[in-house]
């Protein structure tokens, strides 16, 4: 199976390096994307928006023959959902890592502190304590050393969707900060945070208790969880 991995904010494709070994060992083909504007600290970020990131994933899909799985971490969840909307007939499962699908008109996060057209990785006190669970001082230092400013428009642009067949694509949510039991309660209550997720006809919730960056705090466990989701897809 071809698996496209889409990183969250401030990260490039190499951020998945600790996660991919079990996927490769199982014989899957891995495509860890670096999205536009995240190629380097001095890369151009002006004029790069959410649609550019979605288009980059769609281009990767179109370069692969046969069915595939999309995996998106954090803000990458909104991006892969946009790609599912564009290619619902090509994606056999979408895996959301501590994230979920972003519905029509939603934005990823327009409250992050920006510097011009980019959003540098903020100080740690901007994040909730739950985000930082298991992210010790060494991991924080390594994360900051590799972090690349995020194009501001990706965080602030509205999501636009058009194909209801996206709801037919099975989804797996790997729940880290919030346990699956809480996500289930929110879906049952019609909470807006999970409104789009609740519309998907086949949703699987998997618990991986840790902070918001499991690719750093629990990479082996995250790799195993993704592999299990792919294996269940067939």
From TrEMBL:
Question: Which parts of the sequence belong to the AB hydrolase-1 domain?
Answer: 3-222
Q: Which top-level group of life is the source organism from? A: Bacteria
Q: What is this protein called?
A: Putative esterase
Looking up Gene3D superfamilies in the UniProt record yields: alpha/beta hydrolase
Recorded GO molecular functions are: catalytic activity
Q: Which organism is it from?
A: Arthrobacter globiformis (strain ATCC 8010 / DSM 20124 / JCM 1332 / NBRC 12137 / NCIMB 8907 / NRRL B-2979 / 168)
